Amino acid sequence: MNQRLIAAVIAVPAVLALIAVALFDGLPFATFAPGGTIDVLGSDSNEAEVVQVDGHEVFRDTGQLRMTTVRVSPAGDPPRTAYLSLGELMGTWFDGDDAVYPYSSVHQEGETAESSREQGAVQMATSQDDAVYVALTEDGIDVPQVLQVAAVTADLPSEGLLEVGDVLTSIDGVAIDDDVELRRAIQQGTADEPIRIGIERDGEAQTVEVTPVEETIEGRQRLLVGITPGYDYEFPFDVEINISDNIGGPSAGLIFSLAVYDTITPGALTGGARVAGTGEIAPDGSVGPIGGIQQKIAGAREEGTDLFLVPVDNCADALGAENGDMTLVRASTMHEVRVALEAYAADPSADLPSCEDVL
User: 175-196, pLDDT tens digit by residue?
Assistant: First the structure.
């Protein structure tokens, strides 16, 4: 038997085995697909207003502010249990609105479907509070705030030392006022050397020593203590955003903020138009990038949306999406978007902030 024939005899079964694995055992990829949209200015399935306000006059209008969602293939424990077959991946690949990504770029190591839901719920709650804060301050309403622990990550240094609700006051004796100062102070530390975190718990001042660990995140070495910071606000009146518990994450923050602002101020912010969008909102009103922008644009396009609000850092990807007749509006801050929507309401031909301006 010659060498080529021997090689073929060995190779063919191996190739067939690989094909069988790809077809039936799955490959390490995850998928994004367009999800549904929800009009935050509208009502839920029980005819209750999504944005509910108690203690302040409300103003309802006929426009729409639609939050957008993405359907992401779930995480698995172990990850292989969530891998997708070659047939599933090929079907997604050839759908123009869907996307395929390496599993490790979508789901973190050790992530499960349950942990993903829990994290998403925390992020949703935090984003709603931040959105209400931004909306009220945009209307000139004073809202006192304190920085606190919003979540503690299991198996990282803060577990068992810090608790959800702890007010964060200092790092190594230096006062901190916001999450930017907190993150900067942590990064100035040294891996495996404890830092002193000043907190208030149940009204009492304490100092807790936490030893950060170093991990590579998006190609950069970062120090982690294992907490998610958030803000606790003293709102002068009650605002609730009623969204299904099945929806998580921070990416609806911008839409929430605009919807609350529209509800507590006279006039129709949208001018009666159908507006959709996405973007994480920070307490200073800046709009952060999100994942799945092209799938969110596709979901809004199917709803016949007029305008789509795009976080500035997502603009390049957004311009590659099939947006149909929708106008893509750049979103750098909530204030910029609010002014743009007011201009559009007054004149639909107004010159609006564009993603093309940032390329």
Answer: 998 888 999 999 999 888 999 9
Q: What CA–CA distance (Å, rounded) separates 176 from 206? A: 15
User: Tokens 């390329």 label which residue?
Assistant: 359
Measured torsion, CA atoms of residues 101, 103, 108, 110, in degrees rounded to the nearest 10: 170
Q: CB under 8 Å to 132, separation ≥6 — which residues? A: 233, 235, 239, 241, 256, 257, 260
Question: For residue 359, how many C-alpha atoms fall within 13 Å in the half-sphere facing its CB?
Answer: 11
DSSP 8-state code for residue 21: I
Cβ(98)–Cβ(295) under 8 Å? yes
Contact present, 135 and 258 (Cβ < 8 Å): yes
Residues present in the chain in total? 359
For 336, which DSSP code? Answer: H
What secondary structure letter does DSSP report for 308?
E
Query: Using CA atoms, how far apart are residues 75 and 73, in angstroms rounded to an integer?
Result: 7
CA 176, CA 199: separation in Å to the nearest integer?
11
pLDDT of residue 162: 96
Alpha-carbon distance of 347 to 352, in angstroms, equals 10
Dihedral of alpha carbons 30, 31, 36, 37, sign? positive
C-beta of residue 205 within 8 angstroms of C-beta of residue 198:
yes
Read off the pLDDT of residues 104-115 as tens digits, 9 standing for 90 and up: 888 887 788 887
Contact 306, 326 (CB under 8 A): yes
The pairing of beta strand 167-171 with beta strand 195-201: antiparallel
pLDDT tens across 66-76, in order? 999 999 888 88
Asked if residue 171 lies in contact with residue 186, where contact means CB atoms within 8 angstroms, the answer is: yes
C-alpha 329 chain-centroid distance:
19
C-alpha to C-alpha distance for 186 and 151, rounded to whole angstroms: 16
With vertex at residue 190, the alpha carbon angle to CA 184 and CA 195, rounded to the nearest 5 degrees, is 75
d(C-alpha 59, C-alpha 137), whole Å: 17
